[in-house]
Input
Amino acid sequence: MLGSDVLLFEVSLIYPAEKREAVEELIARVAEITHLTARSKEKAEEIMACGMNAMDALHIAVAAENGADIYNH
Output
């Protein structure tokens, strides 16, 4: 399972704290975290030009850059 800085940012917004901490713990156990790069930011901008919102575009760009076979959001 692949995660990213983008995912961790979204998780940081979860309230209440108990729910956020449970999700963070799950991610720590099962996901490989990748970092947002300039290349994935550029790709996200291309995707947004097609009408997709910024967060979804970032998720897709990071998945594509890291060779993900399946994207599920």
Residues 2-65 form one domain. The chain has a mean pLDDT of 95.
